[in-house]
Specification:
- This protein is of the alpha+beta class and 212 residues long.
- It contains five helices and six strands; from the N terminus they run αααβααβββββ.
- It has a domain at 90-210: Roll (Nuclear Transport Factor 2, Chain: A).
- 54% of the residues lie in helices and 23% in strands.
- The protein is rod-shaped and about 140 Å long.
- The termini are far apart.
């Protein structure tokens, strides 16, 4: 059996369905869907983050930060380079002083013993100066009595360790030597370990010992 629905009956049925769905009465389905879509679009637009605007002031601030960082890095590297350069120069000066004192120590002649020993004392300090000064008188007598003449034919020096104020160096010398016992001379080789101390602008030896 078929049922005929009149216009008033259809309207009543639509109101019942709208009431059950919580929708306002009398609003077409298309309008309701359009409003929902519009509200969803508005909500999604509100959640989007604002784009970062690069203003001239912001650009200059970023440039200034980059420049300051570069300057700080350059200053640090410059200080490190300068310190390393100063230490390198100190080491070279210390090795040269050690080599010269070793040459002076071995180079001696009975005819110029006073000047020879004075050169050694000029390059010495600390315990070595004290020890050498206390023995130089007896040493001079032995050199004169034996008519000793010693020269340096070759010398080599190397740094063992050190910083800007102290250093340890090894020096080797080859020294032809003659005296009354060996009038024709003989070649002697000495190997010395020298400890140096910086005293003002110069380096001086504070300890000297022969090593094998």
């Amino acid at each position: 059996m078929s049922t005929i629905t009149t216009q008033p009956g259809r309207a009543a049925r639509d109101r019942e369905r709208a009431s059950a769905l919580g929708e306002p009465e009398g609003q077409p389905d298309g309008q309701r869907d359009g409003r929902a879509d519009g509200e969803a679009d508005g909500a999604s637009k509100g959640l989007r983050p604002a784009a970062l605007r690069l203003t001239p002031r912001l650009v200059w601030a970023l440039v200034a930060v980059a420049v300051l960082a570069s300057l700080a890095l350059g200053a640090t590297r410059g200080r490190d380079w300068y310190a390393a350069r100063q230490t390198e120069q100190a080491h070279a000066t210390a090795v040269a002083a050690a080599k010269q004192l070793a040459i002076n120590f071995v180079t001696v002649s009975y005819a110029t013993v006073g000047a020879d020993t004075a050169r050694v004392k000029a390059g010495a300090t600390g315990e070595f100066l004290k020890s050498y000064s206390s023995s130089v008188e007896q040493l001079s007598k032995v050199l004169v009595a034996n008519k000793t003449v010693s020269t340096v034919q070759r010398s080599e020096a190397a740094l063992v360790s050190g910083d800007q104020d102290s250093a340890v160096a090894l020096v080797g010398v080859v020294a032809p030597t003659r005296n009354t016992a060996v009038p024709n001379g003989e070649t002697k080789t000495y190997r010395m370990r020298l400890e140096l101390r910086r005293t003002g602008p110069t380096w001086k030896v504070e300890n000297l010992e022969f090593v094998g």
